[in-house]
Queue: 2 jobs
Job 1
Amino acid sequence: MLAVVIRRLLATIPVMTIVAVIVFSLLYLTPGDPAAVLAGEQATAEDIERLRVSLGLDQPYLVRFGQWITGVLHGDLGTSIFSRRPVMELIVQRLEPTIALTLASLLIAVLIAVPLGVIAAWRSGGIVDRMAMSFAVLGFSVPVFVLSYLLIALFSVKLQLLPVQGYVPIAYGFVPFAQHLILPAVSLGIINAALIARITRTTMLEVLNQDYIRAARAKGLSVRRVLVRHALKNAAVPIVTVIGISFALLISGVVVTETVFNIPGLGRLTVDAILRRDYPVIQGVILVFSATYVVVNLLVDLSYGLFDPRIKH
Amino acid sequence: MSVTATAALPAGGLTRLWQRHPNIIIGAGMLGLAVFAAFAAPWLVSVDPQTIAPFNRLEAPGAEFWFGGDLIGRDVYSRTVYGARVSLAVGFGVAIGGISLGLIVGLLSGFVRWVDQILMRVMDGLMAIPSILLAVALISLTGASLKNVIIAISIAEVPRVARLVRSVVLSLKEQPYVEAAVTAGTPFLLILWRHVLPNTLAPLLIQGTYIFASAVLTEAILSFIGAGTPPSTPSWGNIIAEGRTVFSIAPHIVLFPGLALSFTVLGVNLLGDGLRDVFDPRYVSRK
């Protein structure tokens, strides 16, 4: 198993290299002179030139890429133009809210989507199916910030049950942490549930048509046992795959949701960096998000063996 | 495939289509309404979307201002109607741009083996970058304008189209009739025109509706976070962004453009689902 994991990790190197090239090129092509920006407004032409040489900005593309990627591999993502602090430090500070939001919404999405998809497939064409699929189309169509505002209007403004916005770290107590997290996580979870529910239903429909399902029912197993143990387990591979793919959707959702709810996470950091044209931060965040996406999908790949022993790595 | 697809289209006009695939009619109707609003905007509104009427600041929706007033007193109804222009321009622009670029990459990949390896690795890399962040990065390079938003979202959509086209080409190359055409010495471009392109049409049409929907949503998100359509042009995303700070006292500023946005995207998605049911009956629910 360890050998498999290592081989798979190595296989992500080409993809990550291309991501790194794309991200670096974006910064390289950025209009404006980073040395002039870093030197500040009072700097003379000589100051800027000296800074440019000391930063290696006068070097050709490949040399600069080499220096940059060496830094990245050592955990150095450069320095923020705005706050003059290491990008890595800024990112680490913002990790907790984003991880909490991502995991909570993923959990909510799966808890809604999988049972819904299973029941929709089992009672295909029935009322639950129709409602579930209408919900799925709506989930594809309503932008996450519109849903967020609807939920805020209902639960925070009208019923005054939950805070309108903000974030409380888990270290300050679980209850305030959960109170602040629940609305953003539910909004994002519902949007992501749509895609997962749809794939669950489609895959389950195919599996439920198989002979062994009829055989399992015929030998007297309960509906629940057949649905969960026989059908869902065999439908698991596409479902897990789509959960991995939906992670990309989740990342763009995080950027928006953190803005709506004023959560000081990576998404908020990205948006602030965009507004301030803080390119090193933008670059660092993209790199971190992309690497996470690649790793998540690697884990998805590795999980196939758990559901289907026929898949050997 | 294209032959069976045509045969699957219900004969007998709109009534039959309505009975068998109501989603197509409903979706096309909703999209049509949005297109109408975009074209007829000057005749649908009486107030210019940029006119500032201070007495109308944060005014609730009423008889005179149907959707109320915004933060500085502009007419939200007028801005919402005009906002359709941006969203639809982005939707159609990205659907056409993304599909054209993706088609070129996909065809190259499918036919030229040594290019395939390189292109597909680049596509893998592009796909690993969340599309919204890729678009943000491209826009921060070029500056926010409608054209740049369309280009940026198109580039983010290319990998999915390229993969789709490539898979169609690869499976077509195995088909006896294509092999026969190659053996008979049919010129490559003729094979492309007569056998390959017609077979990519149906999947690309369906894919196109989903690209349209996702592009409209992405534009709204970009404008919402301040990286999309410049504030001088009303777009659903930036109207919502402007209303964000006063949401608890004037929810209508967020609500109406939000509804317009959801309505349009829902229409396009229904249209896409309907088309998919026509062309790919595997996914039609069993009744």
Job 2
Amino acid sequence: MSTLLDVRDLTVRFALPRKGFFGPRPYLEAVRQVSFSLEKGRALGIVGESGSGKTTTAMAAIRLTEAASGQVLFEGQDLLSLGDEEMRAQRRDVQLIFQDPYSSLNPRARVADIVREPMDLMGLGTMEERNARVRELFQLVGLRPDQLNLFPHQFSGGQRQRISIARALTTNPKLLVCDEPVSALDVAIQAQILNLLAKLKTELGLSYLFISHDLGVVRHVCDDVAVMYLGKIVEQGSRAALFDAPQHPYTQALLAAAPSLARRKSKGYVRPLKISGDPPSPINPPRGCAFADRCPKAQDICRQTQPMLEETGGTRVACHFPGPAA
Amino acid sequence: MTDTPDYKAESPALEAWRMFRRNIPALCGVAMLTVIVLATLYGTFFYSGDPFDVVWAPHEPPGATPEFPLGTDYLGRNIVAGMLTGGGPTLAVGAAAAAITMVIGISLGALAGYYGGWVDNLLMRITEFFQVLPALLFAMVLVTLFSPSLWTIAIAIGVVSWPQTARLTRAEFLKIKELEYVTAARAIGARNKRIIWKVILPNAMPPLIVSATLTIGVAILFEAGLSFLGLGDPNVMSWGLMIGANREYILDAWWPVTFPGLAIFFTVFAVSLIGDGLNDAFNPKLRER
Amino acid sequence: MTALLEIEDLKVTFNTRYGQVTALDGVSLHVNAGETLGVVGESGCGKSITALATMGLIPMPPGRIAGGSIRLSGEELVGANPSRLRALRGADIAMIFQEPMTSLNPVFTVGDQIAEAIMLHQKVSPDQAFKDAVALLDRVGIPSPDARARDYPHQLSGGMRQRVMIAMAVSCRPKVLIADEPTTALDVTVQAQIFDLLNEIQRDFGAAIILITHDMGAISEMADRVAVMYAGRVIEEAGADDVLDHPQHPYSRGLIDCIPALGREDHALKEIPGVVPPLHLLGDGCAFADRCEHANDRCRREKPLLAAHGHHPAACHGVEEGRI
């Protein structure tokens, strides 16, 4: 197995408005020194709540958001150091699908043109070959050829997501970034898209960087999982290790909070681990561990020093007191 | 798959047209404007005569002589001839001024909205500079500097009215550039030029088309105003010129001023009705009704 | 025994550009005091319309209640005069909406808004109402409620705003609390807090809760009884464990098998093909027939009625004939 994507110390900053005319410009660190790697043919899930920086991490990794520092090695080449034209050429290998199937397709273009556009832009093949490829992709994602000339608003949410997937596959990419691909869809439609993504992964040997807030979805799709909290990875490991023996209190809290069919009101369940409050503001992050304020295990050291990501019993954890839930 | 029962491609433009077709006031506007345009284009075939020629006694009231159904002006010139020949230049100046407004406004607004940062700052300061100039005064200065002709008048109107279009375009671009299909275009390697003109602009067009329609109305009024003040092209008959020339005698004879005034009123009214109709047609919220 | 809230054979129609469509086609539901009824279905199934009809908030026109009855403690609400409905709304029936940001007025402090709601239904002084508001904020678990009562909605997080909405909804101790997808806009850890809070409030106040959701996981944790809706009809109704462990209708079974929820990892994801048919294209047969692997000619011809054939009531010919 070889590494497809190796992200090292990726940091993303957003400029905030100055306080006063001559004041220094404050920054918000949305992603703070995140490192992970993705093997060929595997799916890495990045899980987190809103504001955790999971989408920004993925967008910065494929240069749709500017990174402040770090490296993104794609097949050994640092994407962040490429010139604009080189990056444009590289895009055929790196594609993405979006969360909102309603705003991700240009409402004024026919869907056949939307799916063909990447080939037009990169000058791949003749017009005949491109159109043949569009028909082939339509079939692959489960759409009918008689729908080729329709406009996006004539499709349902699930079908639009299929169009979005077809567009992303046009150039035979090696890496597909999926940003919450099913969270805007109705539950019954989610399964259709998740099964399609699973089929494409085996048939085409794709690798996924899969962003989601839904632990059930991630568990279904991903081989490896990284949990983010306030711009940092707090725990990462294989699916089995992370779901069966989570070490970080935040991961444990997420699992306890996610609705589960195994917990029944009739059986009088009590949530095993309750956490209160909201995540702290990324504008002024705490000095120590970002989760300390909500953590049942927090001690003084947690508020003073940031824990580093370290190997502990199956997963890599950033916690001063890792271990199974009490 | 059971959904999408209709396989006919329905472009957003086609849907807008369907909405527009059901809008009675807007259709009246189209009818009115069609009549006015046809009359100014072909009216002279049926009713020839130089509008500058003195043909009869001055201030002949309308209906008094069958030959001159709308009467004559203070010099004894035929008002019908003036109405029919004067419409063309008026409409042409309106359309040309609106086109100039759109070209300048959309270009600057698009660049400012898309690139943001210092480009936006610079372009918006320039826009504000033009916006705070008193429009009529500035247009008057331009027209007097470059001797009045239809072209200088159209350019002067365009130069003073683009800032509003620029602001509207910028606002639309700011909104649309955040949408995911723009990110999608970047992700498949589209260059900025393509994203601005091929992806964002077509989606920003609906409010701009509405604004362009209304700009035509404003430009026609502007041209009339300049002519009224005596700054029109004196060698070309226009509705504004007729009003301007006859305004001193309005207490003696109402008709030389009133008929071109009504013509301007109905033209601007028709254009506004069309503009409102387009506005409704492009508004997806009204479509379900 | 009559239930606290009884909806019987409710029919709601809407005028659209496709003509008149039937959004609710004979919906019958009931909920008892201290009980949570989960109403589950995909978007467009009529679950939110049911909630709005119960609140007397169907926009008319284009909507119209074409038949049926809604009784609260025996009092008929369909056709009741608007002032009576206004008096009941907020006092006896309250509702929590999906998006707490747009349901709060941005120009007033949250304390004032809760006090306002209290004064609408109770004769208390403004000072007392504000004190009650602070107490309610404390009750729904907002830290330093005194200070937060003086905050504006935008100064609070999404979870806090939903707590404010709950405080406002329970301010007059309603008998029925309708929660329409109350946590869809919230993160999972916050969702868990809101669910726990709703359960606590039910224990304390004894209110009946109608929880409208698309999430079977939420049903599992919150509901005593479940009604599954599809295309404007209730197609299955029973205790939560019955529906979750022995779903009768193929659609209910599909809804459970299609979610990758935790606690059911052993299952492969089963798809429900196609999408919910638009209301104006509903024919004579079962609305689910086109998506159902068990459908036969009878299903396409004749609408099944909700009746107990198997384990518990379901509206399905297949269950009735013992084919499923």
